[in-house]
Specification:
Elements: H1 4-8, E1 45-48, E2 51-54, H2 55-69, H3 73-81, H4 84-94, E3 104-107, H5 113-128, E4 138-142, H6 145-158, E5 164-168, E6 181-187, H7 196-206, E7 207-218, H8 224-236, H9 238-246, H10 249-261, H11 265-274, E8 278-285, E9 290-296
Parallel strand pairs: 3-4, 3-6, 4-5, 6-7
Antiparallel strand pairs: 1-2, 7-9, 8-9
């Protein structure tokens, strides 16, 4: 059944191919059922915005989208949200319960916003408390080399070198040992993962007992009038902004559609519970335009 947004807004024409965002060897090779899809192995499907594509194609296509938008990603975030995304991210980092000495993994860390903020907060805590400890660097992990390149450049510009490390990896198959991190975070990235449930299980796997997973993601506005206005803004203006500012309407059309296909708040809570995360909960931001979800590994 089509959602209200799918019924009222036409589907765009996406380019059928683009440049490779990952090497052939680094692409995931899953033979399991995929979120929102049907079948297994090579028959598995997944949502790519309002389209249904093969699971393997989705990973490549999302990679192409973010390779395309990487250089303008931060500018477009400011344009699309009128800067409100910065308030959401500040709230997100404040909720993490960070303490000096904690090990932190930031998934889909891309251009570094969350990773830099976490590293800065931990460094300030150490200085304020006059602690003589070595703070582990925040590990920023992203599947897309183009996004990581932008993040590294930003880190160099800011003089942030020792406080962060960089990893290229798939959230569905993380290249880290079990029980490695006190916190695992992901900000505006979970909806782009092909298999959300696999990513949640992986986040739990790499958490230490007593560690906590946090997700900041666009979510669902339930007030009917506000939801309709939000749809009009999203489907009419955001792709237009993408065309004018970034020269890429199609990628931003996909990003809008991916928000509408992402599980609503309570559905994501249940999927976190199914993945083995304990006491999952959420907090709405801006009437549910975004939400912070969290859950423990016990």
């Amino acid at each position: 059944m089509l959602s209200e947004a799918e019924q009222h807004f036409p589907r765009p024409t996406y380019p059928s191919s683009g440049h490779q965002s990952m090497s052939e060897n680094s692409r995931p090779n899953h033979d399991t059922d995929v979120e929102a899809g049907t079948g297994t192995g090579t028959d598995a499907t997944a949502d790519f915005g309002f389209r249904t594509v093969s699971a393997r194609d989705k990973t490549r296509m999302v990679g192409d989208v973010f390779a395309s938008v990487a250089s303008n990603y931060d500018i477009m975030n400011d344009v699309m949200s009128a800067g409100v995304h910065r308030i959401w991210k500040t709230r997100f980092v404040a909720q993490l319960g960070l303490r000096p000495g904690m090990s932190v993994l930031d998934l889909a860390g891309g251009t570094g916003d969350i990773g830099f903020a976490i590293a800065g907060k931990l460094e300030r805590q150490i200085k304020r408390q006059s602690l003589d400890i070595e703070q582990p660097p925040v590990n920023i992990c992203d599947i897309n080399p183009a996004m990581l390149a932008v993040g590294r450049d930003r880190a160099l510009d800011r003089g942030i070198v020792d406080q962060v490390t960089w990893s290229c990896g798939n959230a569905e198959q993380l290249p880290f040992d079990d029980r490695s991190f006190d916190r695992v975070t992901i900000s505006f990235g979970l909806r782009n993962v092909t298999d959300i449930d696999a990513a949640l299980r992986e986040a739990r796997r790499v958490l230490k007992p007593g560690g906590k997973f946090y997700c900041l993601e666009f979510s669902r506005v339930h007030a009917p009038i506000l939801n309709r206005l939000y749809d009009l803004y999203s489907f009419t203006l955001i792709p237009r902004f993408g065309e004018l500012v970034a020269g890429d309407r199609d990628s931003y059309q996909y990003l809008v559609e991916s928000i509408r296909k992402f599980p609503e708040q309570k559905a994501l809570v249940q999927r976190m519970r199914d993945a083995g995360l304990h006491r999952p909960t959420y907090e709405n931001l801006s009437a549910g335009i975004a939400a912070i979800h969290s859950g423990w590994r016990l």
